[in-house]
Design brief:
By secondary structure, the protein is α/β, with parallel strands linked by helices. About 30% of the residues lie in helices and about 25% in strands.
Amino acid sequence: MNQDRHVFIIGGGVIGLCSAYYALQQGMRVTVWEREAEQGDNCSLGNAGMVVPSHFIPLAAPGMLSKGLRWMLNPQSPFYVKPRLSPSLMRWGWLFYLHANSEHVDACKQLLLDLNLRSRSLFAELAKESDFGLRQRGLLMLCNTQHGLDEEAAVAAMAHELGARAEVLDAAATAKMDPGITMNVAGSVWFPDDCHLNPQAFSAVMRERVRAAGGEILYSKSLDSIEHANGQVTAIHSNGERHAVDQLVIAGGSWSAEILRDLGIHLPLQAGKGYSLTLTNPKQLPELCSIFCEAKVAITPMNGTLRFAGTMEVGDLSLKINPRRVKGIIRSVQPYFPEFSEADFADVTPWAGLRPVSPDGMPYMGRAPQHQNVIIATGHAMMGLSLAPITGKIIADLLNRTDPGFAMDRLAVDRF
């Protein structure tokens, strides 16, 4: 191990842990810093646990503005922007507007597909030695209207053009795919290359792997300041201690923009709050993960439990639960899974997490402007878990100053 290459990673979620793991594989000395306790909560734990090559269309896409405006009027809708006087939010919204077009989708879709497929293969490699509940059976995009099915069929056609696998199914064929769950759907699109896992188990596995490889993980740490001069970060001050660094990785999720402001970097990034509810003893248990297309709710079986996750509530860094958004998730279930009722969720405690959202729907991976020993890895939105291994691999390559093998301009930190 090259002890002179001390990499300090801010953020102990799946992006930070995967970055640490692959950096250690390249012979670096690694310290991970995390604001939460080791058994604390972050966006890496309560999410839907999906690995999604099917999600090759970035969030900033045609039609999202009109849908977003309609959803804004519904307190239980899948999308909401919390109004506030914020220059950073106004800038983010303007950039989103500029990128919500077909040209942007065409420029990004192959890259997003390639990143997700490579990440999927890395998950499969990791699963050979560790059990984190990886199930490689695909994902069903469930549509309970013909209009929804037509829209998803168009996505399937786009997938075929990119060389990805997708199959449009009618209601009967959908039922045969997962006979353990009663469905009320017009049909579905099956993406066989998608898969799912238990995100909490995966986080635990990666913590073990980082430590086994000689990495250090510091928990419950406050960030006092970042010491820097002449375009170089030299140390992190945390809990009254000084930690010298050779290279710094910012993988702080939705808090990354706040951290980077100390370096004079104003990264366009907003927190997108999502919620999940997990039934510990569901009356029916599907074998495949799925998404309610019209409702934008993800459903994942996890070790006998069933998780429902959804909403994108763009706002501040508060984790306060919005009961109306949670109600929207609960009310979306019965139209697709008719055996379930709202009463099934009566005693379920909702979980909330903050997803870091860039204005063009593409993650940030690259060196910080004016600070050449700082690398940023954030902005993955709903694909944080899905892209975690490939992000970690890319960050390790950047730390080692080797070519990651992807077109990095679409992911550059200073692309706006």
